[in-house]
């Protein structure tokens, strides 16, 4: 099955899984990268490209690194439990790629803004990575971006897709206003969005599992407007429609599709309305207000924090 992204693909939106019954029928679609299928129909491969070359780079150069550094101690292994619950490291190497690429909290937009890289640069958990390990992660992400978005090599004298994405994200973040956030009802709409296990605020008030939905508009805005990983859950950059030269920020709906449909690796999350709900309405309203601010000018870029 084919998929599509614009940037922040499926996410760390794993709910209070301990109280959720697992669905029957196994752990989701079986990945087949040769057909452009990463195992989840969440729309993160707009070109429908053969992803096997990217998968090979992950399998041979990345999986063992994240397996060694990101598991244990209630961290990111798929069967671990604790406060994080962004379980992007599969126990089975054969499923490692499928699990990893479906966590936005890990891959972000497959650019240099990907949390796997920004967390490394920030010294996450005081872990260190060799230059070779970092280069293999960058090579893998670059191949994912190239294939999924059809960007190809960067022509001489032009900004790379990663640079373009960072600039657009910073511009958008700098034009986000708390008053618009409040007027769009972002906090109330997302915090009180009902799933099969209760409102989103039940698990995500403080940003648990890489997603924040807090009734306090100021508290939620302060996180979404400054923290890259949380911003990426709500917004993304479209590199497809008009190419890299015409790229722009758009509302990220892809990030919610795999979660609301309970596709691997989010099979434990309770379902909720996927295409028409108060949260998506608020998201679009806030997006439109922010884009109007960009058009009007007068707001300075604000780089998002790792």
Give a written overview of the molecule.
The protein has 306 residues and is mainly alpha-helical. The chain has one domain. It is built from 14 helices and four strands. The strands form two sheets. A two-stranded antiparallel ribbon has the order 1-2. Strand 1 and strand 2 (198-199) form a beta hairpin. The protein is globular, with a radius of gyration of 18 Å. It starts with 51 loop residues before the first helix and ends in a 10-residue tail after the last helix. Mean pLDDT is 79; it is low at 1-28.
N-to-C span: 33 Å
Morphology call: globular
How much β-strand is present in the residues?
under 5%
Instruction: Give the overall average pLDDT.
Output: 79
- Could you say how many structural domains there are in total? 1
The helix count comes to 14
SS-derived structural category:
mainly alpha
Provide the succession of SSEs.
HHHHHHHHHEEHHHEEHH
**Assembly state:** single chain
Widest β-sheet, arrangement of strands: 1-2
Describe the largest sheet: 2 strands, antiparallel
Structural Rg: 18 Å
Poorly predicted parts: 1-28
Percent range of helical residues: 40-55%
Number of strands: 4
